[in-house]
Design brief:
The complex is a heterotrimer of chains A (433), B (288) and C (276).
Chain A: H1 2-20, E1 24-30, H2 33-40, H3 42-49, E2 52-58, H4 60-72, E3 80-84, H5 87-93, H6 114-119, E4 121-122, E5 125-126, E6 129-141, H7 142-147, H8 158-168, E7 176-179, H9 189-199, H10 216-232, H11 242-250, E8 254-260, H12 263-267, E9 279-283, E10 296-302, H13 310-320, H14 323-333, H15 344-348, H16 350-353, H17 358-366, H18 391-406, H19 412-429
Parallel strand pairs in A: 1-2, 1-3, 7-8
Antiparallel strand pairs in A: 3-10, 4-5, 6-8, 6-9, 6-10
Helix pairs in contact in A: 18-19
Chain B: H1 4-36, E1 38-41, E2 46-50, H2 54-61, H3 65-95, H4 101-109, H5 116-127, H6 134-141, H7 149-152, H8 154-179, H9 183-191, H10 196-223, H11 228-233, H12 243-253, H13 257-287
Antiparallel strand pairs in B: 1-2
Helix pairs in contact in B: 1-13, 2-13, 3-8, 3-10, 3-12, 8-10, 9-10, 10-13, 12-13
Chain C: H1 2-34, H2 39-42, H3 57-65, H4 68-99, H5 105-114, H6 124-133, H7 140-165, H8 168-176, H9 181-192, H10 194-210, H11 214-217, H12 226-230, H13 241-261, H14 263-269
Helix pairs in contact in C: 1-13, 3-13, 4-7, 4-10, 5-7, 7-10, 8-9, 10-14
The chains are: A alpha/beta (433), B mainly alpha (288), C mainly alpha (276).
Chain lengths: 433, 288, 276
């Protein structure tokens, strides 16, 4: 009897295995360099498992709009979605994602950096697996720093940065002392200014969810930013986001750039960067208040609940976010190009330790704490965002007001007043206040 | 003339188109109306009950509402003005004898075939970028400080991009209209010693009346819905948020379907006011 | 003397028209040229116009990254399909409006146009939910139907204006000869209206080809047309002008070429009854 059961079970399993064989997965992802590399390496996954993959590669804003519509309406268009630290806990809480707590032992989920795992979990369960993780740090031109007669400390302050930026600036030769994000959008300029404001002692909300843009801390943050950028930033910085600044830095037009740690491999890649051998790294600045201005983010793969291809989707996630994927990239493109910031073992790997930005990336990631990101206590989780569903909409509008101030269309005070009003209004509509 | 039989046949044949469009209008419209009276937040579990007119009052009382209506009207109005004026001038020019008329016409109509997304991307990056854009290079050649097009002259830049896309359409229709003008009438006027300006004002322009109306009507319909150009270039920042874009922000970025639907109803009302206004003119002009 | 003047005027006209024409066309030409440059040449200051090392590497890279042919085929099927479907539905309606007009004909026509003013973003959620129910998401059929509905008013209106130009007597003569309604429409009217129908088809293929809201939001992998293809090139990391130009050229070239080859049809037909 037992035997029969076992045989039956085995047949059922092998049947399930054959059924699961040769699925076709639809994966939505962002058009960032690391994802495009993953797309090119898909053949390796297909060879290993037999599953084929159809990619839907979209620009970040379009992707967000697309996957959010699909997940909230349970459209079921995608078997795997690429989402971030902001979406994961909210969607996980709503039960829209498949828990990733039963990945295979080979996968070694314990190896994932605790900061990443924490940010991609809800209530202790991981709902998305990090493809790469990032914080932000300073990337600077060692040659220009030397020319300015200054030396970058390992952990500089904002006043040092402002001074350095002004002395590195050489407008006649199109050298801007500092390039920072000013582009509207919560994930662009919004993320930067929020992380920066943390170090100035500002916060989005007080403990009763009242907007805090009428505080001195916010006005200090924004005035400091605008003054520095007007003196030492590139023209039109109000429309510059990550990509715009990256290409400016690669062309040698920026003295310093404070942005995502993943950019380190792009600015030091001699194929794309004209300044590859002249880049130094240090921690994002602080203002002497005990909080640095670096953020924490991960692009992660998640499976929408209700997909019929859950097993195959998990196989893909185990492939794409594993150590063997990292090795595969290292073998084909070199260690500098592997997806960073996701796994502890990568930073223990002797071959990776030689990479100039490895240590600074890890230090930056480890120094960001989503649960304790502001000087004064705040009711929300997240460093450069507040993990509530309303945040993306509000922060996009707020950052639009800020960008208008950067472009000189309104004063900082006007922008802050509008931000205060619209945030309180939206929070009221959502029922927080 | 038309028999009873052909009348009922006519009705029958009109039916598919009418029924389809009625469905296309009514189904989404009634769903939009339904949502607009609900607190509907997809990220908070969806339908959270009826809220009466709260969404409606919240949508208009938001500080972004009136500026967005204004921006919409400015964009639609300016693009119409630019395309009609330059369209007439260009059509007059293309109607003159010249060498290579066919090729020039090909060049002029080309922008009409370009996807709005592509045109916005190309303008934004390759031309208007303040550092690497072609305009910035050009400005620097003349020793001028490059203009920060999309942040400091955002609305004019946007109007320029959209006008570039629609100028060919206006030119084509107006050119066809000019070519149908009776040349004897013009020659007679010339013999009588009427100046070119007079000929234009008293003969050509009245003849173009219908064509201009058509241009305005068709373009208004499309211009009210301008979206990709804003999404790509400014993302609604720097005072380029139109009503359509504001609704997009409410529905998709803020994930407040109720509020966005109320906005949708306002947009429908605005569109209908404009439509009514237009149809008055067009209706008169179409009969002639 | 008069000849000399006209000759002179012709020269001025020619120069002026060519300058303006080239100016209008320049953005497209520049994009086309940039697509053959390397990324570094694409942003060179001063810009290089023609004398650079032409390369095809951007096209190879774009093709390696996204399956152009799939997106292209989808665009063709959706644009042509929706237009043909629309024309088939519109012909009878336009016939009855043109030849059996009633007091309400013009109202119906204008009402049809007004349905185009419904803001698409406002109804995205309802449509998305309906599409889930009908299992039409990411299907070419679903998209074809949506685009047909969007363009139907324009199609009806254009056909109506062409049909109106056809003398009623001809149809009456056919009727006298005992032609049925069906043969009247398909064997008498339609052949006479071929130029008009052709330009209607052309214009609507262009409009459907370029539609970027519904085509992006209702598709994923299978039915995604060229608008989705271009959405993955808008902001890649680092320098991307050359790759963007290559992708843009690939997305607009088919419709541009079609438009140019058929421009006589298009121009002749683009009157919307504006010309009498």
């Amino acid at each position: 009897m037992k035997l029969a059961k076992a045989i039956f079970g085995a047949t059922a399993m092998s049947l399930a295995a054959t059924v699961a064989f040769a699925e076709s997965l639809t994966i939505a992802t962002v058009n960032n360099g690391d994802m495009i590399r993953m797309q090119k390496l898909t053949d390796d996954f297909t060879k290993q498992t037999g599953h084929s993959v159809e990619w839907v590669t979209l620009e970040e804003n379009v992707l967000r709009q697309r996957v959010t519509t699909d997940i909230t309406t349970k459209g079921g268009q995608f078997d795997i979605m690429t989402i971030g630290m902001y979406e994961t806990p909210i969607w996980g809480k709503n039960g829209w994602l498949v828990p990733l707590d039963d990945l295979s032992a080979d996968y070694n989920a314990d190896d994932i950096l605790p900061a990443m795992k924490g940010g991609l979990s809800y209530d202790g369960t991981m709902f998305a697996s990090p493809f790469y993780g990032e914080s932000s740090m300073i990337m600077y031109r060692t040659d220009l720093m030397e020319k300015a007669g200054m030396e970058m400390p390992e952990a500089p302050s904002w006043s040092f940065i402002a001074k350095a930026a002004r002395s590195m600036t050489d407008r006649d030769n199109e050298i801007n002392g500092i390039c920072l994000r000013g582009k509207a959008g919560w994930g662009e300029g919004g993320a930067f200014i929020t992380a920066m404001s943390n170090s100035f002692g500002a916060r989005w909300f007080d403990e009763d969810w009242n907007a805090q843009f009428d505080t001195r801390e916010w006005s200090d943050t924004l005035n400091f930013f605008v003054n520095m950028m007007n003196d030492a930033g590139p023209p039109g910085y109000a429309t510059n986001g990550f990509n715009e600044n990256l290409s400016l830095f690669q062309q040698g037009k920026c003295g310093m750039w404070i942005d995502a740690t993943v950019a380190a491999s792009f600015v030091t890649n001699p194929d794309d960067s004209t300044v590859a051998d002249k880049v130094g790294f240090s921690l994002a600045p602080d203002n002497g208040m005990g909080v640095r201005s670096n953020w924490l983010w991960a692009w992660a793969l998640a499976i929408p609940a209700g997909t019929k291809k859950e097993a195959a989707a998990k196989e893909f996630i185990e492939w794409a976010t594993s150590n063997s994927y990292i090795e595969l990239v290292a073998e084909k493109e070199g260690w500098a190009n592997v997806p960073p910031g996701a796994r502890t073992s990568l930073y223990e790997n002797p071959e990776y330790k030689d990479i100039p930005f490895a240590k600074m990336t890890l230090d930056s990631i480890l120094s960001a704490d989503p649960n304790n990101s502001t000087v004064d206590p705040s009711p929300y989780v997240g460093v450069q965002f507040a993990a509530i569903p309303e945040f993306a909409g509000i922060a996009t509008e707020v950052s639009q007001e800020f960008s208008a101030a950067y472009a000189g269309q309104q004063t900082v005070a006007e922008a802050l007043a509008k931000a205060q009003a619209l945030t309180n209004d939206a929070m009221e509509a959502a029922g927080y206040r | 003339m038309a028999t009873q039989q052909s009348r009922s046949a006519a009705r029958l044949m009109m039916a598919p188109a009418v029924v389809l469009l009625l469905g296309w209008m009514l189904v989404p419209l009634s769903m939009t109306l339904y949502f607009s009276f609900k607190k509907y937040l997809p990220l908070r579990g969806g339908d959270l009950g009826w809220v009466g007119f709260e969404n409606y009052s919240r949508f208009v009382s938001s500080s972004a509402f009136w500026p967005s209506v204004q921006t919409t009207l400015i964009i639609v109005g300016s693009v119409l003005l630019i395309t009609v004026i330059f369209g007439v001038l260009l059509a007059l020019l293309l109607d003159q004898p010249m060498w290579g008329q066919g090729i020039v016409r090909i060049l002029v109509i080309a922008p009409f075939f370009v996807m709005p997304t592509v045109s916005a991307l190309v303008w934004k990056n390759i031309f208007m970028d303040p550092v690497n854009g072609l305009f910035a290079h050009l400005w620097r050649v003349f020793g001028a400080e490059p203009v920060q097009w999309l942040s400091q002259a955002s609305l004019p830049s946007l109007i320029m991009i959209v006008s570039w896309q629609w100028l060919p359409f206006a030119t084509l229709i107006l050119l066809t209209a000019i070519q149908s003008l009776d040349s004897e009438q013009l020659e007679a006027a010339e013999m009588d010693g009427a100046s070119p300006l007079k000929r234009f004002w008293y003969i050509i322009l009245p003849h173009l009346g219908r064509a201009i109306t058509i241009v305005i009507l068709i373009q208004t319909i499309f211009l009210l819905a301008v979206f990709a150009e804003i999404f790509v270039t400014t993302g609604g920042a720097f005072g380029t948020k139109t009503l359509t874009y504001l609704i997009f922000q409410r529905v998709l970025e803020s994930q407040n379907v109720g509020l966005g639907s109320a906005g949708g109803v306002y947009a429908i009302i605005l569109a209908n006011i404009i439509a009514l206004f237009l149809m008055r003119i067009v209706g008169k002009n179409l009969d002639a | 003397m008069a000849r000399a003047v006209t000759q002179q005027r012709k020269i001025i006209n020619t120069v002026l028209a060519w300058v303006i024409g080239l100016l209008i066309f320049f953005p497209i030409l520049w994009t086309f040229l940039t697509s053959f440059k390397t990324e570094a040449t694409a942003i060179a200051d001063p810009p290089v116009f023609l004398f650079f090392d032409w390369t095809l590497e951007n096209y190879t890279e774009v093709q390696n990254r996204s399956d152009y042919l799939k997106h292209f085929t989808n665009s063709v099927i959706i644009a042509v399909g929706s237009t043909i479907l629309g024309v088939l539905i519109a012909i009878p309606a336009a016939w009855s409006m043109a030849f059996v007009p009633s007091k309400r004909t013009k109202d119906i026509l204008l009402w049809m146009l007004s349905t185009k003013m419904l803001p698409a973003v406002g109804v995205l959620y309802p449509i998305y939910l309906i599409f889930i129910e009908l299992r039409l998401l990411d299907s070419k059929i679903g998209l074809t139907i949506i685009l047909m509905l969007i363009n139907l008013p324009i199609i009806v209106w254009m056909l109506y204006t062409y049909f109106k130009e056809i003398p009623n007597e001809i149809l009456e003569a056919a009727r006298m000869d005992g032609a049925t309604l069906k043969s009247e429409i398909f064997y008498v009217l339609t052949p006479m209206a071929v130029p008009g129908i052709a330009s209607t088809v052309l214009l609507n293929v262009i409009l459907a080809w370029n539609e970027a809201f519904w085509t992006l939001n209702l598709t994923a992998a299978k039915a995604a047309p060229l608008t989705a293809f271009i959405a993955s090139y808008s902001s890649p990391e680092g320098l991307f002008y050359a790759k963007l130009s290559a992708a843009s050229t690939m997305a607009i070239a088919p419709i541009l070429i079609m438009g140019w080859f058929s421009q006589k049809q298009l121009v002749r037909g683009l009157t919307f009854g504006a010309v009498k």
